[in-house]
Design brief:
The complex is a heterodimer of chains A (286) and B (308). Chain A is an all-alpha fold and 286 residues long. Chain A has a domain of 179 residues: Orthogonal Bundle (MetI-like fold), CATH 1.10.3720. Helices cover 75% and strands 0% of the residues of chain A. Chain A is globular and about 70 Å long. Chain B has one domain: MetI-like (MetI-like fold). Helices cover 69% and strands 3% of the residues of chain B. Chain B contains 13 helices and two strands, in the order αββαααααααααααα. In chain B, strands 1-2 form a two-stranded antiparallel sheet. In chain B, a hairpin with a 3-residue loop joins strand 1 and strand 2. Chain B is globular and about 75 Å long. Classes of the chains: A mainly alpha (286), B mainly alpha (308). Chains A and B meet through helix 3, helix 5, helix 6, helix 7 and helix 8 of A and helix 1, helix 2, helix 3, helix 4 and helix 7 of B.
Chain lengths: 286, 308
Amino acid sequence: MSASVATGRQTAQRRAPIRRRRRSPWAFVRDNIVWVAATLALIYLLLPNVIVVLFSFNKPNGRFNYTWQRFSLDAWKNPCGAPGMCKALGLSLKIGISATIVATILGTLLAFALGRYRFRGRSAVNLLIFLPMATPEVVMGSSLLTLFASRHVGLGFKTILVAHILFCLSYVVVTVKARIAGLDPRLEQAASDLYANEFQTFTRITLPLVAPGIAAGALLAFSLSFDDYIVTNFNASPSSTTFPMFVWGSAQRGTPVQINVIGTAMFVLAVTAVAIGQFVGRRRTR
Amino acid sequence: MAALAEPVAGRSKGARPSRRGRPSWLPPLFLMIPGAIWLGVFFVVPLVFLVSQSIQSGSVADGYKVTWHFANYTYAFQHFWHQFVRSLVYALLATIFSLLIGYPLAYAIALKAGRFKSILLVIVIAPFFTSFLLRTLAWQTILAGDGLVVRFFRSTHLIAVTNWLHLTNGDQLLSSPLAVVSGLTYNFLPFMVLPLFASLERLDPRLLEASGDLYARPIVAFRHVTLPLSLPGIVAGTLLTFIPAAGDFINAQLLGNTNTTMIGSVINSQFLTVLDYSGAAALSVALMATIVVLVALYVRKAGTEELV
């Protein structure tokens, strides 16, 4: 009897294929396996960020901010309450901004050279740009340390800056180069057909079109620089503590809630910047 | 980063012919000089110094001299062989897991997300904007003590399985190889997803329609069309995950125990705490050389050379 019911349902379905079948949750998972896996991956990616934000509102009992106690705004009201943290944050911002400016300029020039011209040794330069990205951070940091130590260069702000510009540079080149490669050459040809000289073509057509790539490269450079611990640790002195170095130290001594406040604030700022960028980009294309 | 899978700008070939008889190599030379000098002086030269340091003998106090002291290498390997192999194994595991987790995500964003594509991409990149260290510390909270994850592992007896595989010890998850590998997987997952996305996004959907028209089941179409065409993305993504993971020590230090120490941690402490510059330099050079050889073999095997 159950069989006849089943066939009855099947014929009903055949007659009205538009009507949605009642499906078991298992069938839903099977049909949307890609989305289920993607959602799980996104949760995996975002869970730690949620924890960082959540624990910025915690009021821990001991020195370590690892278990949830109760809600509090104390750390947000007093973000510089952890001794030494705001100094470290200031240094990180200073290094991050300087490294971003220099790396973006050098990287954009390199990207134009590689994206626009064919010349002998081009693949060698490409390799020179790829290699720093393929070098583990410990190797890069330790090799710079041996250079500075053997030349008796004092470690501090300058050495950290040099290192940061180095590892940001390649990422800027790659990001900007991709944008240049994706440009429609006909736009520039049209400009020169309309009697624009090379300089006008560059400033009115090329640069505005490449600008989003440069902005993305700069944003990437800043986040890489602001976040770096391993390379920085090799090239810093005890008096030049960056924010990641402060966090590392506090992981051993006791984590103040304020580091989560800074993490949350940076996150919100960066996501806002990206959102504004998207919005502006969309309005300009309209 | 997504651009790693981008092809070399073949389109711009001859895009700007030299005008007014100006030699065509002059402008790119001027554009390249500052950046190339920076890379030369602060990347290539330090590597030469590192190699030279690794065959010197002496001490930080008395100074070092090049004595072709290759014993630094044998010393380093005798003492830190385990950490060396462990780093490569952990990095390999993290790369495999990243690929398994990252591929469906990149696929969904590139081919199924429609107008939500850019929002989902921002979500993938968003973790970058919170400090790497803070996020790794958050994993301590997630995996610690009596948290949800630990309870799930206990109630499903998964912990017995991981214990049997020596991935965990006792009934906790923190301070175990499992925690270190999952931390590495997490931290380098975006480096996998972005190149995969870049290569999947360029996939022509008409190819999939064509394979469907030729009666290929979706799984067959995936195996014969999507997967081969996304191979450049897979190669770029696995490299971008494996290389930093092999040298990383933050995860091993914050999520592991004394038996999960990785080679990066050894190099770091030999340089900065023990002050054995030559031994540490030897380890650094060995790590770099191993990675270069592995990458070269892998790229040749995978047959894609257009990585940059």
